[in-house]
Specification:
Blueprint: H1 2-11, H2 19-40, E1 61-66, E2 72-74, E3 77-79, H3 81-94, E4 99-104, H4 110-122, E5 127-130
Parallel strand pairs: 1-4, 4-5
Antiparallel strand pairs: 1-2, 2-3
Amino acid sequence: MAFEVDNLKEDVMSEINMTPLVDVMLVLLIIFMITVPLMKNAVPIDLPKASAEKYRSNSKIIQIGINSNGQYSWNDAYMDDDSLRIKLEEQSKKGLLTQVHIMADKDVRYERVAQLMSSVQRVGVRQVTLVTQPKAH
């Protein structure tokens, strides 16, 4: 019987079984191959193409300002909310309103800017630019 016990000791494997580890690695590899492309394009964004040249357009640019009190101005002429809405609709019907530049004071409430952008969008303008001053270095 002592001979059989010694024979069992010789049959014991002292190496690590790599098959389960390889299986786990392959499963993880497949999971990452499927999920990474989905995460990369989670939000579709069509980024604009930019160039170093100054943008030139044949369309008329309307400048609408909002001072720190939330009062609107159309090409430097102050007006209230209703007058601005009427003016936007008139210019849109004439086909003259294609680009709007919004110049908002840094202290104006975001709500006023959002209301203006909503009004501009309602009349069909798709080119809206928020004008800023360059940072002084």
